[in-house]
Amino acid sequence: MKFEDFPDDLNLRQYSVKELKTYAKGFLAEKEDRLEGLIERVSSDLDIDRSKLDFSDQSLAILTLWFNSKIEFVKLTQEEYEIKRASFPEYIKIDDVKYSQDTFSLIYEVGIYFGETIIHKYPQLKWEQIFRKTVDYGHVVIMLGKLPMNPCWLMGTLCWGKFRRNEEPKLLELFKIWERYL
Predict the structure, then answer these.
(1) pTM beyond 0.70
(2) Alpha-carbon torsion 74, 168, 176, 36, what sign?
(3) Local confidence band at 13 (pLDDT 50, 70, 90 cut-offs)
(4) Mean pLDDT across the stretch 126-135?
């Protein structure tokens, strides 16, 4: 099962452990190709040498510039909205939009780059899948001691911050925050 088959709300609790393990294998197998595609796209769009995307802290500033210009949301269909509305009490306000398919892919790709940047700086870290009963259930994360860091989830959260509060994601700032846990 590929990540494109999973819901764009990143909730994986509905899948069996077997499906999730298949998902993790696919995530890890596709990681290098996704990084290569992202680096090619960013360097081409910004007309920069790809060597600047070297997984250094400072490369996150370049990626931030590019990522901010690519975040898009699309309106939910009436059916999608009704399904979403039914899963929350009426007193909770819900958005009538979702990530565009391209943004959803970028959440993963930029998340992988962000995670690999931390791993390059701290090579004792690695990607691993967790099955603890948390919001990260079934996700491939990077464990910072006992604390899971889910780079893809973080990128999704940054996108919602841009939509709801017009806050532009700052990947280097986020990196420095998470670095404190090491």
Answers:
(1) yes
(2) positive
(3) confident
(4) 92
